[in-house]
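Review form for a predicted model. The reviewer records the input and the model, then writes brief findings.
Reviewer: anonymous (R2)
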Amino acid sequence: MSGERRAGQGRRPQEGPDRVDDGGRGGGSNRAGDRPDRAGDRPDRQGGGPDRAGSGSDRAGGERDRLYERLKAYEGRPAAVGGRGKDPVNLPMIRHWCEAMGDTHPAYRGPGAVAPPTMLQAWTMGGLSGHEDRSEAYGELLGLLDGAGYTSVVATDCEQEYLRPLRPGDEVTFDAVVESVSPRKTTKLGTGHFVTTRMDVRAGGELAGTHRFRILKYAPAPRPAKPPAPPERPRRPRPVINRDNAGFWEGVAAHRLLIQRCTACGTLRFPWLPGCGDCGAPEWETVEASGDGRVFSYVVMHHPPFPAFDPPYAVGLIELAEGVRMISNVVGVPYDKVRIGMPVRLEFLRVDEELELPVFRAVDDRDAVEGEGER
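Model under review:
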């Protein structure tokens, strides 16, 4: 793991920076590490952003140049000094991380366990109470951007470099610096500046890795007027049915939720696969699920909108009573009332004349207990 490098992790926005016309001025010069100055993220000298009223005038251009000079002065200044991880590297956090990520690598468990390299940032996070080691300079930089009208923020990406593995018991310390502030850019989200910070993470005084984190501080672009409502409601996307999962959809049509069971080792599996992930055997049979389960995890979908769906709505990872998990909608409760551990029960929802889907209706804990007693 020493020296392993992973770049570009955590790239979030689906609406990335757009190419803009810079009036033939060129992309401008880059400092080393000023990643946002790449093709498609050129400095915006015209239009957009909070300066729209004076766009194209010498006065507005001069104000933008003076602002950028002030922003550039923060490059190299500390963003955090003498930070300490709130907990030493420890096996419970490693286990929780691996379970959430589905990572079963043997290096991350047992007496000689190491932490997954991608946990690098996790050991520096301040939690809900935050950290007290953020520098005044970083707060001033963000305040300067806020005052210029760039009041919205979105994290765009991060890059990590791993120099040595972290092991249980390691005490993590870190320092961060403002590495770069980009020229003004125009993206689909709006016009603003990319701010990149670099964090050096140490264990026992030895550099363990670096974490670059990039945000865009921007003034939101005006939203286009909503198009008129379509005359007919779009249909939901059709499931892709093939020879490996046809039996599942045949079960749904008969209002049965079928789980595969390996006939060689008895392992249950879902979603349907052509072979057993545990022993590799291709032979299998089906078991009908009882229909009871609990919300193992969930997300609330707000954006982007999809035809035939009305956001916000809850999408749950449901752990069935049989132990396997499946993704489905949680119904019968407002989206903001869905909770991890909430008991749910299977039902089948007809969404149009051709398609019926398994969904899970939230049930009261008392109903869940009574249902178990009846069985």
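Findings: The chain is about 15% helix and 30% strand.
Further findings: The CA atoms of residues 76 and 178 lie 5 Å apart.
Recommendation: see findings above.
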